[in-house]
Design goal:
Elements: E1 2-7, H1 10-21, E2 29-34, E3 37-38, E4 44-45, E5 48-53, H2 56-64, H3 73-76, H4 79-97, H5 100-109, H6 117-136, E6 143-147, E7 151-156, H7 161-165, H8 170-183, E8 192-196, H9 200-222, E9 226-227, H10 233-244, E10 249-254, E11 261-266, H11 278-286, H12 299-305, H13 309-312
Parallel strand pairs: 7-8
Antiparallel strand pairs: 1-5, 2-5, 3-4, 6-7, 9-11, 10-11
Helix pairs in contact: 6-8, 9-10
Keywords: Cell shape, Cell wall biogenesis/degradation, Chaperone, Cytoplasm, RNA-binding
GO biological process, one term: peptidoglycan biosynthetic process
Protein name: RNA-binding protein KhpB
Length: about 325
């Protein structure tokens, strides 16, 4: 009896053969026709195909026909025990690869993390808190939650998204700050909660990166440092990260919250004397002897500049006045 069994792994296909024939694996001859291939991230692609051969009649005949001595050695066929080592080498390496599959897949897919009960409670607390504020404002409180490596992102999409975001995300930042304070209150382990609406965070991140590149080019061209407007810590980190990838410029923060700013500077600033233009050079050629002196050539200028009598007598500030 020969049959071909298909399963996700070779081991499962062999188990199907054992249950189908109702015989131990040692009495079944297996031949692996196809094995599943290991793809990206350790995932298995395709299925395993195993050919199983089992001869129940030949093994039962010697038991029933005891008087037939010549027939006894034929069905026993020492090939059955001799083939046992051939079955085991094929099965052992396949069995060793089976446990690797559940270890590789969760390592990639489950890494972004499943929330603990405490973290899930914090996320739900923050969501309900922000939703209550939006309802009191007459806005939609529909939201979705996304688990990230550092925490969760709560996205509120619906009518009035502009009101939720505010001017340059100020309202969104305020909601995020309040939600974080409420959910992490009285707990030493901080759980990061990000509030977003209509993909504003990603759009703002791209805008800040382009701003950092533009300012860096200007600093490289002029050699002058440029101070940006006050930003929150999240946006300052985006600026610092973008500037760090550009050669010739550096960045640092200055000031105190909430007015802390980022300053982008050149690593090779120009000296003040090197910034003289052509007009400065022409002026120096026209006046090589320095500033022009006053010429008292005319009689009017001589009379005007002639010392007064009170100057010659060193009279006091308030002298005698005669009428």
């Amino acid at each position: 009896m020969i049959e071909i069994f298909t399963a996700k792994t070779v081991e499962e296909a062999q188990e199907q053969a054992v249950s189908a024939f109702g015989a131990p694996a040692s009495q079944i001859r297996f031949e692996i026709l196809e094995q599943p291939r290991r793809g990206l991230f350790g995932k298995l692609k395709g299925e395993a195909r195993v050919k199983a051969e089992y001869e129940p009649m030949m093994q039962q005949t010697p038991v029933r026909e005891a008087p037939a001595a010549p027939a006894a050695p034929v069905p026993q066929q020492p090939a059955a025990p001799a083939e046992e080592p051939a079955v085991q080498p094929d099965a052992v390496p396949v069995a060793e690869t089976v446990p690797e599959t559940p270890e590789a897949v969760p390592a990639e897919e489950a890494a972004p993390a499943e929330l603990t009960e405490e973290q899930a409670a914090k996320a739900e607390h923050a969501r309900s808190y922000v939703a209550s504020i939006l309802r009191s404002m007459g806005l939609s409180d529909a939201s979705t939650m996304t688990v990230t490596e550092s925490g969760v992102t709560l996205t509120f999409d619906g009518d009035g998204s502009g009101t939720i975001i505010g001017r340059r995300g100020e309202t969104l930042d305020a909601l995020q700050y309040l939600a974080s304070m409420v959910s992490n209150k009285g707990d030493k382990e901080y759980f990061r909660i990000t509030i977003d609406s209509c993909g504003y965070r990603e759009k703002r991140r791209k805008t800040l990166i382009e701003l950092a590149k533009k300012i860096s080019k200007s600093v490289l061209r002029t050699g002058r440092s440029t101070t940006l407007e006050p930003m929150n810590p999240y946006e300052r980190r985006i600026i610092h990260s973008a500037v760090s990838e550009i050669e010739g410029v550096t960045s640092h923060s200055t000031g105190e919250e909430p007015y802390r700013k980022v300053i982008i500077s050149s690593t090779n600033p120009r000296k003040g004397g090197e910034r003289r233009g052509r007009n400065d050079r022409d002026r120096r050629r026209r006046n090589p002897e320095g500033p022009r002196k006053l010429d008292l050539a005319t009689s009017f200028e001589k009379d005007y500049k002639r010392p007064k009598p009170e100057d010659e007598l060193n009279a006091g500030l308030y002298g005698k006045i005669e009428f």
